[in-house]
Amino acid sequence: MEIKEQQPTQEQRETIKKLHNDGVRKAKISAYIFGGVLCFCTTFVLRLKAFAFIGAYHDLLNNILLAGTFSFGILVLSRFVQSQIAKGSLEKGLLYNLVQFTRLVTFVIIIFIFISFLNANWYTAAVSLGLISLLLGFALQTPISSLIGWFYIVMRGPFKVGDRIQVGSFNGDVVEINFLDTTLWEFAGNLMTSDLPSGRLIRFPNSLVFQNQVYNYSWQKYPLVWNEISFYITYKSDLDWVERKVKAITMQQLDAETKAHVQDMRNEISATPVDDIDIEEFPFVNFRIHENNWVEVLLIYIVNPKHSSYMRSKIVKAVIAELLKEPEKVAFVSEGS
């Protein structure tokens, strides 16, 4: 059950389309620059004697115009940042959220600019803003942490829509990443003993990425994981023959894409500072002695994490069927022993 990338809504598509439209972008930037220059020039006009009749409102109007000048400058900078974000390779849903976040920050900065310019006492304004920020920080601690967590997810990319991940005790495929929370389509969980989807959705605050380890089973550079299957045979079995047979059967069941990733895995391991792992042989077959005097055959192979249950079942049926054809080469542990 594959999960495709997060599909944008109509509003998101329209917003992204406008950001890619050079004509719209240049028109808005030109309008912001014109507004800023107009406000700045008007401050000089106010100094003329012709406007002496406004009296006490002179300083207020002057401060409003100065605040407008700085605000238009912030809008130009914000529009430039949004256009750069739109050029990125992020999924459209995340790209839209990042643009909206930029607009939110721009709006907050403009409000602070106007509060600062309209307050005659800068010390009082600074104290007021500090107290407001402190109160909002306590009242909105979790949402703010989640918003920062969302920004971390977008910039650092510990996971993206479609990845199979584990965060704390939550296991699932990522279906949506929003400002405040992430939605998973649960696999396994307490309803299932396999790694198939349980049918439930999990929604957790983004702040959890700072409090828990994040396991990503769909790493872009190497989107496969190791899996293993074990079964028991007797000491009378031909272990060398069993090893060769199990390897050959497993290779027949694995698809071409999985086999091709073996070389990618070798390249990734060789590029890391850890000791190289000998993976010339693939898949692996290891033998262990069981406490009841059996031999445990442990088959280790790589698989797409979303296909592991299907592939495990496929390999088990093929291996058991082939080994049963050669009773003189391999003997299974008898039932009930």
From TrEMBL:
Signal peptide positions on this chain: none
Compartment(s) of residence: Membrane
Matches recorded under Pfam families: MS_channel_2nd
Residue ranges of the TM segments: 29-48, 60-81, 93-117, 129-154
Alphabetically ordered keywords of this record: Membrane, Transmembrane, Transmembrane helix
Record keyword GTP-binding present: no
Domain Mechanosensitive ion channel MscS: 143-193
Topological relation to the membrane, as annotated: Multi-pass membrane protein
Annotated family: Belongs to the MscS (TC 1.A.23) family.
Protein name: Small-conductance mechanosensitive channel
Source organism: Mucilaginibacter terrae
